């Protein structure tokens, strides 16, 4: 999942440099959502893993 966030971030940077602002905005939004989801799942798995 973190790999997908990095992939969309790279797509957003390349699209922004080329001038595709719509694609860059969409890709950066997807990257942000995936990154936040990854962090939340990491924290949940860290908390539940300590209880075992």
UniProtKB/TrEMBL annotation:
Q: Which HAMAP family match?
A: UPF0391
Q: What protein am I looking at?
A: UPF0391 membrane protein MLE19_18100
The keyword Transmembrane belongs to this UniProt entry's keyword annotation: yes
Name the family: Belongs to the UPF0391 family.
Keywords attached to this Swiss-Prot or TrEMBL record, sorted alphabetically, are:
Cell membrane, Membrane, Transmembrane, Transmembrane helix
| Native organism | Vreelandella neptunia
Task: Please tell me whether the keyword Transmembrane helix is annotated for this protein.
Answer: yes
Bilayer topology annotation: Single-pass membrane protein
- Which compartments is it annotated to reside in? Cell membrane
Question: What InterPro entries does its record include?
Answer: DUF1328 (IPR009760)
The taxonomic lineage of its organism, from the top, reads:
Bacteria, Pseudomonadati, Pseudomonadota, Gammaproteobacteria, Oceanospirillales
Q: Which residues form the signal peptide?
A: none
Q: Where are the transmembrane segments?
A: 29-49
Domain of life of the source: Bacteria
What is the predominant subcellular site recorded for this chain?
Answer: membrane
């Amino acid at each position: 999942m973190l790999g997908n966030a990095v992939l969309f971030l790279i797509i957003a940077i390349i699209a922004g440099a080329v001038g595709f602002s719509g694609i860059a905005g969409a890709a950066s939004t997807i990257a942000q959502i995936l990154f936040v989801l990854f962090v939340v799942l990491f924290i949940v798995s860290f908390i539940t893993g300590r209880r075992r």
